[in-house]
Request: fold
Amino acid sequence: MKILIVNGPNLNMLGSREKAIYGEQTLADMNAEIAEFCAENGIETVFFQSNSEGEIVSAIHGVRTRFGADGIVLNAGAYTHYSRAIGDALPCVGVPKVEVHISNVHAREDFRHVSVLAANCNGVICGFGADSYKLACLAIKDILGRSGK
Ligand code: CA2
Reply:
């Protein structure tokens, strides 16, 4: 089982600024931690980051064909709150999807309380830093296990 982990705009800047909100880890550090945890749990991972909406849409479309993955963990960054294009891409692919956030978006500004992606995901996990991604991977493993895939 392989899971595609997609990170959106500005998440390549992790560890450089806004450490009080997003922590000290770089994206590479966080991905390594997630990959190790997933390997221990029998899950292969593949990572994709882009600052561009269209590239994120294309990555979602290619979950199987380009990445050979069976599920998507998606932190679309600020696109979460307004990208109808990313929201519309999610039902195009028949794999489990979990929206994640490093921070607890519900404890922040009002605009971050809205997600235009969540309705097209199996669920949402936020506020647990790198653990949000790990929990999402376990949730996808569970969904795939229950569907016999
Ligand atoms: O908490 C999350 O994971 C977010 O998806 C992060 C997005 C934000 O727009 C969402 O509301 C919540 C922003 C990521 C920005 O990351 C930076 C990291 C370091 C320095 C600057 C930005």
Observations:
- The first strand starts at residue 2 and ends at 7.
